[in-house]
Write a structure and sequence with these properties.
Layout: H1 21-25, H2 34-49, H3 59-66, H4 70-77, H5 80-87, H6 91-97, H7 105-118, H8 136-154, H9 162-182, H10 186-190, H11 193-208
Length: about 210
């Protein structure tokens, strides 16, 4: 005779593969936002590159600052060299820095530089100042800066001596960046960004539209 086992009302075990109601309605855990994570890693690497020699920076240090694991950096970027090749490029920085019509470009560049430090926690071009820290990697920084920032700006200018004027405009901008972000001038840091833009942008613009 076949015995039929009737589950006791207090039993909680379920057949294999059974789906509980709460399982079916449970919201899946959100996936990590890959692009936001990559951006955090790049910001962390930039921060460290502006303060330490390239050879002294470890993936562990980048990971700790970005709040991720070192293996995740390897997953997204492959290795340290590939990560810092991205950090040493000014391509996306230059695109944002120069994203304004030429008559208003000086104001845009000054505002973008200051807001990069105060609001976004990243300077669009100032890491070129630290090129001497990085040995051969510093040569890469310089070459990238020339082609991706100075020469790109020169290509937008009209009139004579476009290359010289572009470099003078960038030099003027970097001077502000050093005083604001590295020397941390007391009066500069206390001033409103728009006040600095009003006072300083004409000096940059003079080189762009002589």
């Amino acid at each position: 005779m076949r015995t039929v086992i009737t589950p006791h009302p207090g039993d909680t075990a379920s057949p294999a593969g059974a789906v509980h109601e709460d399982d079916a309605t449970r919201t899946p855990a959100p996936r990590r936002d890959a692009e936001a994570t990559k951006a955090a890693i790049l910001r962390a690497a930039r921060h460290l590159l502006a303060r330490h020699a390239h050879g002294d920076i470890t993936l562990k240090a980048v990971a700790e600052r970005a709040g991720v694991s070192a293996p995740l950096i390897l997953k997204y970027f492959g290795n340290k060299d590939a990560l810092f090749a991205r950090v040493m490029s000014f391509e996306s920085d230059a695109e944002a820095l120069l994203d304004a019509p030429l008559p208003n470009l000086g104001r845009h560049m000054v505002r973008h530089l200051l807001e990069g430090q105060t609001l976004r926690g990243a300077d669009p071009v100032l890491r070129i100042v630290f090129a001497p820290l990085h040995g051969e990697q510093g040569d890469i920084l310089r070459a990238n800066f020339r082609t991706q920032v100075s020469e790109r700006l020169a290509g937008r200018l009209t009139g004579p001596d476009a290359g010289l004027r572009a470099e003078l405009a960038v030099a003027t901008l970097l001077g502000l960046g050093v005083m604001y972000g590295i020397a941390r001038g007391t009066h500069l840091r206390a001033a409103e960004i728009e006040d600095i833009v009003d006072r300083y942008a004409p000096a940059v613009q003079d080189q762009l539209t002589p």
